[in-house]
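Re: beginner question about structure tokens

> Can someone show what the tokenized structure looks like for a real chain? I only ever see the sequence side.

Sure, here's an example I had lying around. Input first:
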Amino acid sequence: MVRFFVSPEQMNSDRIVLTGDNAQHAKVLRMKEGEQALVCDGQGRECLCRVLSGGLELVVEQRQESRTEAAVRVSVYMAFPKADKLEHVIQKATELGAYEIVAFPSGRCVSRPDEKSLRKKTERWQKIALSAAEQSGRGRIPEVVVLDSFREALERAAKADRGILLYENERATTLKMALEEAPFTSVSLMSGPEGGLEEKEVQQAMEAGLRVCTLGSRILRCETAPICALSAVMYAAGEF
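And the corresponding structure tokens:
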């Protein structure tokens, strides 16, 4: 079934008129009167609608909470990587059910976009999340959040039921061990850039209350680690 994302305000009406990209998409699909479509507000609510004549106006038949959202809220924290690696992580994390994707600077980041560049990048990143949410049948569009400092990222990540830092030099604690310590409904997964995190940053994470974990004996690329960990969390939470 075709899926459209509209503003929460539009969702409050019994009739929804498709505009902009949604209208263009509907025209491409050549939607006919009587067909059904799913309209979502990007925040977890959705409406089952019927298409009226003209193909751009929909009448709401049923309202409900999205049935495709994970019960566990997983936030993916990734230090700024080079090139378009973050775009890949945003797309795949959205498909896997991430609640949000958070980008932040760390000591070994090669990529350090300025404020003007970040505004443009953030807009593009959010569009990638939207597209991936549509493709994967999500009822919520993960927000792409950009933070100013590593310290801010630590403080925010530590608020989850389970705050986890992925570190290639950790040997004792596995992700499996950290997830089995106690029940959880929210998880923060933090990982570093291409060069990894500095030892002092790992120490700061521990002091902030994050659990430092290994993802095994192999060294994963910076764009692989968060997707691997997210998949493991979703499996542990019974989503797969």
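Each token stands for a local structural state, so reading them left to right follows the chain. Residues 73-236 form a domain with the Alpha/beta knot fold (CATH 3.40.1280.10).
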